[in-house]
Amino acid sequence: MVFKKHNDKGSEDKIIDERFERNFNTGKKLIGFVVLGVVIAFTVFSSIYSVSEQEQAVITQFGKVVGVEGAGLHFKVPFIQESTRVNTTTQGMPIGYEESGTNDPNEDLSDYGDSMMITKDFNFVNIDFYLEYKVVNPEVYLFNTDEPLDTLRNLTKASIRSTISKYLVDEVMTTAKSKIQAEVKDRLIAEMQKVNLGIEVVNVSIQDAEPPTAEVVQAFKAVETAKQGAETAINNANKYQSEKLPSANADADKIIKEAEAYKENRIAEAEGQVARFSDTYKEYKKYPLITKKRMFYETLEEVLPSLDVIITDGKTQSIYPVDKFNN
């Protein structure tokens, strides 16, 4: 009986082991199916993408554009192709202020670095613009420049400043707003055609225009005072130049004329000496001895009148001067 019970227990363990092994194998298969299903699901979901009515999708393969898709459901090769969706509806960009995110414009924050402009009559005006644009070429928008919106903002600010500088402050704040808006838009469109951002300018509008704050006015007055001081210094320098330059020119002309006269005199004197020497030399060649004596006597005539002549034999105690020959 004991031996029989022992056999029954061994059979039960064997059955349990077989059952566990079957369950384990079944679990492994189930896990494999689950993993395979997840992979398949991920592959399917990463292969299919949708594009809304407000967007276009740019498809790239290994960094190269292979297509642009419009609204709808689309398929792409997983892990090889990528899709980048771009909003192609009209969007807005504030210039000169930051939107608060609420519907109350009074809560918007001013950006004086962009809103402060200098007018034609050298006054400051605090003016805000709102730019409306849309992407018309998603491929160019994504790959032609690194930061297309930053470039658009900078071009817009440059166009605004160039335009505002042509108008008086009163015109900017009152009668010329519509004209300024149109001119800024035309100037911006012309600049956009040069850089090709894939963006189209829809509209440019003035939101607000007002005088600057008291601090800015004070700073502007300080700048104007310094500017006037510089202009005064320049005018004084020009006046001093105008006063002194004619006199200096006259002195220079006088010195030049005196130098030229001295030069002509010296040249004439030298030419006379050369002529006299040539004549003497001709006479010398004819009568050398007579010419030498004549030259000797002529030299004495020139020298002796200015000398005190004393005659002595070298032995007498007293020396008596002889009067000048010209007395």
From TrEMBL:
GO biological process, one term: proteolysis
InterPro entries, per the entry: Band7/mec-2_domain, Band_7, Band_7/SPFH_dom_sf, HflK
Molecular-function GO terms, alphabetical: peptidase activity
Start and end residues of each Band domain: 46-224
Keywords: Hydrolase, Membrane, Protease, Transmembrane, Transmembrane helix
Domain of life, source organism: Bacteria
Parts of the chain that traverse the membrane: 30-51
Compartment(s) of residence: Membrane
Protein's UniProt keywords contain Phosphoprotein: no
One Pfam entry name: Band_7
Keyword Hydrolase (UniProt): yes
Quaternary structure and partners: HflC and HflK may interact to form a multimeric complex.
Described function: HflC and HflK could encode or regulate a protease.
NCBIfam families the record matches: hflK
Entry's family note: Belongs to the band 7/mec-2 family. HflK subfamily.
Name assigned to this protein: Protein HflK
